[in-house]
Amino acid sequence: MTDAAEAGRSLTPSKGPWLVVIDPQNIFAAPDSAWGSPMFPAAFANIRRLADVAADRVLVTRWLPTADRRTSWGDYFAAWPFADKPADDPLYDLVPAARSLSPHPTLDLPTFGKWDAIDRFLSLSKDIGSAPVVLAGVSTDCCVISTALAAADAGARVTIAADACAGSTPENHEAAIQVMGLYPPQLTVSDTTSALRILAG
Hints:
Elements: H1 4-9, E1 18-22, H2 26-29, H3 40-54, E2 58-63, H4 72-79, E3 107-109, H5 115-124, E4 133-138, H6 140-153, E5 158-166, H7 170-180, E6 187-190, H8 192-200
Parallel strand pairs: 1-2, 1-4, 2-3, 4-5, 5-6
Helix pairs in contact: 3-8, 6-7
């Protein structure tokens, strides 16, 4: 979906912390994709554990190639022509195992950071302000960190489940985790075990 307001109007989720899973899509998971993360299988196993506890308090985002090509996004897609495909290309589908993570429509955006849409969704569900957010997904060094830093600016309370995130490489993952660790108390870098306790309330 592209309209967070439409999703939020129909929400009746339980109250409590939310799990946000960033972009678990074929383009970032498939071994034969230029952007496929070698860390995705291990990270997704932890994402599944987190989602099982969070239940109806799970949001999933997707990155779509719909940005205005007259902007620097045009340069971006020129640098990555393999990704310059229609938004309905299978590259942009959720991986099959991610399709059951959330009862809510996906939040689909053409930007690395997804926080604005997440914030609108949670505001409409009347569950923003005090509810912590656990952040997981791919890739740590792009869409996850872009979302996390915007959340910090917005005053959110975010825990990054580092072992439920997948970077473009292990080295880039560690670099992004180190940067996000510089933003307490808004951002707390932790792991799946600690995040499970948060989500369990």
